[in-house]
Amino acid sequence: MPSTDLTFATLAEHRAWLTTQSALPAGFRCGNARFEFMPVEAPKPAKMTVTVIALERPTASFAAMFTKNAFPGAPVLIGRQRLSSPTIGAVVINNKVSNVCAPGGVETAERVCAKAAELLGLTSAQVLPCSTGVIGWRLPADALIGNLPNAVAALQSSSIMPAADGIVTTDLYAKIRRAELSSGGSIVGIAKGAGMIEPNLATMLVYILTDVAIARDALRSALAAAVATTFNCLSIDSDTSTSDTVIALSSGVKPAPDLVEFQAALERVCRDLSEDIVRNGEGVHHVMRVQVTGAPTAEIARGVGKSIVNSPLFQCAVCGNDPNVGRLVAAIGKYIGDRHPAVDLARTRLTMGGQVLFEGGAFRLNHSVEAALIAHMNQAEMYASVPPADGLTFVPPVRFPPHERCVEIGVDLGAGSAIATIIGGDRTHEYISENADYRS
Asked: Which residues have a catalytic role annotated?
């Protein structure tokens, strides 16, 4: 379940709440610069933001996890190498172009790191590069490097908001979450991601900053555990991006935390950001939260949940507020039958919005249950489809999350003790329109 149950009536109200979450942990600065460039691959002007997150002093306590996609972007290739660096002092992020399989991509990313290092008094090996956006396009190296001085000049230590705003692409709004620790420090995270999302990780960039002193090995262990149960348990469209990156940095300027408390706080920040990403998914009207219990293994629990949220038919049913729960059963049976046919589903029990749908090998449906399911789905809807004025271009009616409600689905397999919570979104007309027109 989410750490909060927020409701926002207006964009300004949501923005004001983000501001309350945005204070940078001690020892960090961030800033950005926005500029126009002409993509080599598309002869029309485009806009890019370059964002810098810098530590006051380089830190040995850093962690990162990257996509499992076998065609990773140049920044991912470099980031994997940087994991063995003694210290990291900054992260440089650009949106609009992902620098994946582009000619000279690694060399270009290293040029960006070298310029950032020069401006910040670091070595290139102390700078982590990140890129997100169109796959296949080349970074506008000269324009990006030429604007790095502006981003560095904009560095400030009060708010992470410039970074949260600067990293977005098709996102409708910035995403910030924080947790306070009893030792006096904090954990603050930001994320971008709206489509091409099913982590291992997702087209997702996540930056988690903390000012408490925590050893490198402890931070890396904590991040791996948090990612396993949060970012790797979400999906919007089942596509794993080439650029997925989650980075955690500790400035170490405040007292060491209790590690159990730190782990819980880190997981809370990651879990809330995960749900924010799905809620901000391209065209998403409903967030689905699938709680799987009674599974033989964690792998099976996660696989069942992913099969449900990734089912195109079930996604469409949820979009239409149509409790066509036959598609729910089909999605479960598809995964188990294909991957784990020895699992006995005789004791499976399914619920939606607290209503029992299936038990003892049979559906438990009637008119009152159907009405309750429809009401639950309607309540969880963030907005209804609005036909585009020109018949072509989708313009979302809201650019903020109206609420944090979900379509709540329970799956008890009755075949073990493993559990998982999977977050997903519905499949809408807007998702198709946005991705059909993504580059144009």
From this structure: 203
